[in-house]
Amino acid sequence: MTNTSAGPVPGYRELDRLMRLMTGDEKHGPAATSTLDALWVLYSRVLRVTPRTVDDRGRDRFLLSKGHGPMAYYAVLAAHGFLDEALLPGFGAYDSPLGHHPDRLLVPGAEIGSGSLGHGLPLAVGSVLGLRAQGLADPRVWVLTGDAELDEGSNHEAIAYAGPAGLEQLHTLVIDNASATYGRPGGIASRFETAGWSVGIVDGRDHEALHTAFTTPHPGRPRAVVATVAP
């Protein structure tokens, strides 16, 4: 599979128009815009999944653990043809499928329902183990978390397990906008490195740096990319 969509993919500048279509309350705007560039690079150049292959066993899986402020996620999905952009103006409305937290059963292309922080990375670990059990070694699993989300203990258990287990299919993207409550000796990257992960730190607005970090080989180890974004 390739990461081409069913039709022409609008340019990155089109995302501004799509974002402005979502005007509801409780938008968590900064949470959304901090993820926009990384999501665009993933869906445009890295993820092997299209609107036609969302149910294909061999697809890549993307799990949005940072489920609050999903405007950027919805905009990117619309830009790539997963959902109709006509749905965007209804964002957050009672009868809209596009809630303030994504619902896997309502949002085309969404792998999980998310919003309760700390669940995405453990679910991604389980997804990789499930793929292994089925003998599927090619699909990659990506999960996007926030820096503050790493305060949750469930993530540390997942990090500690995935490294020694050699979950090479697992990729974690951490959006670091300096919103975490607790500091870590050596920073976020050191937590993953200590557990045996391959780690990269990049500017979360630099598309080429993001792409390079996303596609760096990491044989035998899970990969973590820490994307720093000014708060």
> What is the fourth-level CATH superfamily?
Thiamin diphosphate (ThDP)-binding fold, Pyr/PP domains
- Hey, roughly how much beta strand do the residues contain? 5-15%
Count of folded domains: 1
Low-confidence stretches: 1-9
Please state the second-level CATH architecture: 3-Layer(aba) Sandwich
Question: Taking Cα atoms only, what radius of gyration do you get, to the nearest Å?
Answer: 16 Å
Percent helix: 25-40%
Order of H and E elements? HHHEHHEHEHEHE
Gross geometry: globular
Strand order of the largest sheet: 1-2-3-5-4
Task: Draw up the topology in text.
Layout lengths: L13 H7 L8 H5 L2 H11 L14 E4 L6 H9 L40 H14 L7 E6 L6 H13 L4 E7 L11 H7 L3 E6 L3 H8 L8 E6 L3
Parallel strand pairs: 1-2, 2-3, 3-5, 4-5
Helix pairs in contact: 1-4, 3-4, 3-8, 5-6
Structural summary, described in words:
The protein has 231 residues and is of the alpha/beta class. The protein has a single domain (14-228), classed as 3-Layer(aba) Sandwich (Rossmann fold). Helices cover 32% and strands 13% of the residues. The protein contains eight helices and five strands. The protein has helices at 14-20, 29-33, 36-46, 71-79, 120-133, 153-165, 188-194, 207-214, and strands at residues 61-64, 141-146, 170-176, 198-203, 223-228. It has a five-stranded parallel beta sheet with strand order 1-2-3-5-4, with helices on both faces. Strand 2 (141-146), helix 6 and strand 3 form a beta-alpha-beta unit. Helix 3 (36-46) packs across helix 8. The longest helix has 14 residues, at 120-133. The relative contact order is 0.15. One of its GO terms (molecular function) is magnesium ion binding. Keywords: Thiamine pyrophosphate, Transferase. Its EC number is 2.2.1.1. This is Transketolase. Its cofactor is thiamine diphosphate.
